[in-house]
């Protein structure tokens, strides 16, 4: 599996399991999991995965996937 595909799968896993409010949070979580990524890469991944910010039950905005 290509690194990009693995990274995209990991991003989707992270946003399902945790409330990720910012790109910086997502960048930190990916790096903690051993992914060597830049802010620009994370930004591109968010666009490619069509992630959106939704209002959470806590009243903050978090990333979510609109794709099935």
Describe the structure.
- The chain is α+β, with helices and mostly antiparallel strands and 68 residues long.
- 51% of the residues lie in helices and 15% in strands.
- The chain has 3 helices and 2 strands; from the N terminus they run H-H-H-E-E.
- It has a two-stranded antiparallel sheet.
- The longest helix is centred in the N-terminal third of the chain and has 15 residues, at 3-17.
- The model has no long low-confidence stretch (mean pLDDT 94).
In brief:
The protein is an alpha+beta fold.
Q: How many helix segments?
A: 3
Distance between the termini: 21 Å
Flag low-confidence runs.
none
Radius of gyration (CA) equals: 11 Å
Work out the helicity level. Answer: 40-55%
Overall pLDDT confidence: 94
The structural class is alpha+beta
Main sheet characteristics? 2 strands, antiparallel
> Strand order, biggest sheet?
1-2
**What is the H/E order?**
HHHEE
Assign an overall shape: globular
């Amino acid at each position: 599996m290509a690194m990009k595909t693995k990274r995209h799968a990991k991003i989707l896993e992270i946003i399902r399991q945790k409330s990720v409010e910012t790109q910086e949070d997502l960048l930190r979580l990916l790096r903690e999991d051993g992914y060597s990524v830049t802010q620009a890469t994370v930004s591109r991944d968010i666009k490619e995965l069509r992630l959106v910010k939704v209002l959470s039950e806590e009243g903050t905005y978090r990333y979510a996937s609109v794709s099935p």
